[in-house]
Each structure stands twice: as structure tokens, then as C-alpha cells.
């Protein structure tokens, strides 16, 4: 291994619990890191069973840190320096680290981990020897409970590493390791947050959006693309299926009146989404629904609407409060895009009396009034595909 000075050590966190599957998870995380950092061709990656090492090679460390911090599947990472496995050299390097931090820290602690148990000194002996050298040569005091400067030493079979700073990752699983799903993306606040949470659990997402031209502005599609570009940080390439929903929507309002219109509309959406998912090998559907938030999200409505679909539906926001969802959307940078005043197909027709407890007999009666199969076929054939990437080119 090339033991260059500036090297990031990536920790897996939750991945380390995956047992026999961990090799697949680490391989996927390595691939995703390389894709996220493709604009830095001189980086060198060493993918090991317990960590991934990235040699910086004179690239901008802050830029790389910002990118890595948003790659799902890693729990934390540190800038490490390689040192020979010699106690005197370890003492010299640890003292350097302490002196570099004297202006912003007063207390320290040495934390040694011996990956190589055959190293002639115990972890405690290394801690004491290195700490004593710092105490003699600086004004630092030891604080074993809450040190301002933790200095970490890792003894590996071939080399030792020293580091003092650890950066937090977003955790979860590498995108794609859990399979592929289809997200119903409306353009509101909720579904981009649900998308992020799905990606964080390792699900590679495709999106489906229901448009109602000419009632909805073309700016809605721009809005959808802008939302997805924020999500490209976590999944660099996302396919979007844009469904021309106007004809079905008008027919629903014609035969259903208003109280059942939303229920029937969402059932039709799920039928199209299921067909799209199955034809593109998406294993599940996902939505931004939160229990009780609107009329179509009461438990009775969820049951009635979901019965039109034979794929599992995952609702990452099911139990979340709106305030928490908004906080997530601000963190993702999607909030200001989501509140742009362009209506989607769910909001263009005002419904004053939506039912919160739809009756299946009534639903079946309404749906028997028109040949929705032919309408769904026609709509499905009219789906347009957009590819949204973190760059301008399509894939």
C-alpha cells in the first residue's frame, strides 16, 4: 500500500453487522465513492475488509470531505497519517499532532487500537508512553472522559496510523445494495425527503411523476428536475417517468364527483406505478405519505387506495411529524424548491369534501362506470422518460 501523508480512512458503521454479505456491501460502497469522486482522477482507493483508504494526492481535502460526507453507507472518516511501527516514531508524530492543536485544545487522550495483537507493547503501554511524551513537552493535560483532542493510534501488521479528527458520514447502506424501487414524486415537500431516506437504506430509486398538462405549468417539470438534482448528491443518476395524467383525471371528476375523486385518482396512480415498476424491475413502490396528514392518508384511505396495487409500498415518513419532514427538506436543500408556486396534478382540482373513510363498495361502483383499463393503457403508452444526473449529460 502507498502510505502517503494525506489519506482518508473510511469506516463502515452499520455495514460491519452484515456478516457474510459485508464483502458485497464494501464493494458497492467503494464503487459509489469512486462515482461520487470521479472528478478527482488522481485519487487512489484501497478497499480493505475493515476500512476503505483514499489517498488524496494533492487534491482539495475540504472538497473531497464534503462529497464523502454525503455518500450513504459510511459512518465516519478520518484524515490519517502513516507512521512506522516504532514507539519512538509514534511519540514524535503524536507530539507533532498535539503541537498543531495547542491553540484550540487544552486536554488530550491517547486511544490505541492494536489490529496486530503481536505488536510487542500493549495498547495501554503505548497510551502511557505517548501521553507521557506530550505531557513533558507541552501544556496539555490528560482528560480520559471528555478530551478536547483525542489522538488515535492504530497498529496494523504493516504500518501504524495516527489521526485526531473524525468527520461524520450519513450512515445507512450504499445506494443500490438493497435493490431498486420506484418513488411517486409529486413536487411537494414530502416525497424528496422520503426519497433521501430510501436511498440512505441502500435502495436505488427511479421516480414517477404524474403531470396534468395544460392545467399544470411546464415549470412543474423544471421543479421536479431541480428537486432530483438535489437528490443526485446521494444517487448521481436518476430516471424519471413522466405520466400524462390529464385525461384520466378529468374522467375521474366526471364520474366520481368530488368526495371520492382523490381516492379514485390515487388508485389509478398506483395501477400505473405498479405497471411501470414491474416493467423496469423495481421491487417496491415508495411514497411520501404520512399517516393522517391529509384526507387520502388516513388509515382507512391508505387501505382503500393500496388495494388497487399488488406491489409492496414503503412509506418512510409514515410516522413523522410535518415539522420534522420540513427540517429534513431544509437540510437536503429541497424545501425552497418544493414550495415554488407551481401546482401538480394533485392540487389543480379543488376538492372541498374529500372522504376520509372511503367505502370499497362505493369505490367499485364508481370504477365500474368507465373503462379505465383502456384509459390506463393509453396513458401508460404516453409516458415520457427523463434522465436527471448531477451533470448535464444524459446516460
Structural notes for this entry:
The chain is an alpha/beta fold. The protein folds into 2 domains: 7-168, VC0802-like (2-Layer Sandwich); 180-389, 3-Layer(aba) Sandwich (Rossmann fold), CATH 3.40.50. 37% of the residues lie in helices and 19% in strands. It has helices spanning 22-36, 61-68, 87-100, 123-137, 190-200, 219-231, 246-256, 261-279, 299-306, 322-332, 335-338, 360-367, 372-381, and strands at residues 7-11, 44-47, 52-55, 76-83, 107-114, 141-142, 149-155, 160-163, 166-168, 180-184, 204-211, 237-244, 284-286, 313-314, 384-389. Helix 3 (87-100) crosses helix 4 (123-137), helix 5 crosses helix 10 (322-332) and helix 8 packs across helix 13 (372-381). It is elongated. The chain starts with 6 loop residues before the first strand and ends in a 6-residue tail after the last strand.
Layout of helices and strands, plus pairs?
Layout lengths: L6 E5 L10 H15 L7 E4 L4 E4 L5 H8 L7 E8 L3 H14 L6 E8 L8 H15 L3 E2 L6 E7 L4 E4 L2 E3 L11 E5 L5 H11 L3 E8 L7 H13 L5 E8 L1 H11 L4 H19 L4 E3 L12 H8 L6 E2 L7 H11 L2 H4 L21 H8 L4 H10 L2 E6 L6
Helix pairs in contact: 3-4, 5-10, 7-8, 8-9, 8-13
Please give the largest β-sheet: 9 strands, mixed
CATH architecture assignment name of the largest domain: 3-Layer(aba) Sandwich
Distance between the termini: 34 Å
What is the strand tally?
A: 15
